[in-house]
Structures are given as structure tokens and as C-alpha cells.
């Protein structure tokens, strides 16, 4: 059986792969604790926080902000509704549209989730110096703004437009 050095693979991989791996590993380690202590997984807590921060937010806006796909957002919202952490209120002008609001139970869960998230993030960042943490947050913020920008999207289209694929080689 071949032994693969995961650390070496990680160090030689693309940045997007490394960021995704870091996030997935951290979530996998913490998710069971969130479920045990709060009754919600981390993704549910993210959606709950989004709804609590933006009372009346609609489904499509949650998809746009979270970057999650339609079916996953639908499942997460359904789960939060079943747990009575959020309410769905139909739009009076268009019955096909609805806003989402946090219940009192949801607000309590969100606050407890904030405390647990703060502790988990502090543990994740423990190997870094405070100045490094601030630098990391600033750099990630800049990269996210860039990736969401029209200039980046235009660049992606131009790059793919000029890329010679396997059929052209």
C-alpha cells in the first residue's frame, strides 16, 4: 500500500484547494459539538445568523450571500423551520415570495452559537500571533471582495475564452 504524505500534498496544492481543505477539516472537527450543544450543524447556524442579521430576508438573497446551492439552502431553511428557530412570513403582495424571521428560540440559539463559534475560531487561530490573525482576516477580506467583483468575473471570462482546451491541442 502506498503511503502519501498529506502535508506535502497540501503544501504543493493550489490556494483554493488549501482554503477548502482547511475549512472542511475545521467544520468536520467542530460540527458534532454544534449539533450536540445547539441541535444545529454549522451550516444551519450560518443561515440562522444570516436571517437574524437581516429580518425578512428572502430565499434568493440567502443563496446569493451564502454561496450555497438552491437545494442545500432549501434543506437548511426547512430544518430551521422544523426546529422552530425561524418563521416564514408570506409577502402580502406576492404569495410566492416570503420573508424569514428569527424566533425568540432562534435568537437564543444564535447567541449560544456565537459563543461556541468564538471559542472554535480562537482554537483554530491559536498557532498564529495576533498580528498574523489580523493580517489573515484583512487578506481574506480583500480576496473575497476581488472574487465577487465584476473585474474578476470579466477576467475569468477572458481567461477561459483564450484558454486552449484539450480538443484544441
Automatic annotation (TrEMBL):
SMART domains, per database record: HTH_MARR
GO molecular function: DNA binding; DNA-binding transcription factor activity
Stretches that traverse the bilayer: none
Pfam families in the record: MarR
Signal peptide start and end residues: none
Annotated ranges, domain HTH marR-type: 12-145
SUPFAM superfamilies: Winged helix' DNA-binding domain (SSF46785)
Listed name of the protein: DNA-binding transcriptional regulator, MarR family
Keyword tags: DNA-binding, Transcription, Transcription regulation
InterPro entries referenced in this protein's UniProt entry, alphabetically: HTH_MarR-typ (IPR000835), WH-like_DNA-bd_sf (IPR036388), WH_DNA-bd_sf (IPR036390)
Amino acid at each position: 500500500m502506498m503511503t502519501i504524505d498529506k502535508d506535502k500534498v497540501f503544501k504543493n496544492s493550489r490556494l483554493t484547494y488549501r482554503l477548502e481543505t482547511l475549512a472542511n477539516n475545521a467544520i468536520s472537527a467542530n460540527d458534532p459539538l454544534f449539533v450536540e450543544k445547539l441541535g444545529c450543524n454549522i451550516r444551519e447556524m450560518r443561515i440562522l445568523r444570516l436571517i437574524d442579521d437581516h429580518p425578512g430576508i428572502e430565499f434568493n438573497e440567502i443563496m446569493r450571500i451564502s454561496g450555497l446551492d438552491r437545494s442545500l439552502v432549501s434543506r437548511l431553511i426547512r430544518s430551521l423551520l422544523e426546529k422552530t428557530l425561524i418563521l416564514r412570513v408570506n409577502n402580502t403582495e406576492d404569495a410566492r415570495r416570503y420573508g424569514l424571521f428569527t424566533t425568540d428560540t432562534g435568537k437564543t440559539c444564535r447567541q449560544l452559537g456565537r459563543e461556541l463559534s468564538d471559542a472554535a475560531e480562537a482554537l483554530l487561530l491559536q498557532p498564529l500571533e495576533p498580528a498574523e490573525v489580523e493580517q489573515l482576516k484583512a487578506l481574506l477580506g480583500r480576496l473575497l471582495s476581488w472574487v465577487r467583483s465584476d473585474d474578476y468575473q470579466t477576467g475569468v471570462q477572458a481567461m477561459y475564452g483564450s484558454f486552449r482546451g484539450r480538443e484544441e491541442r
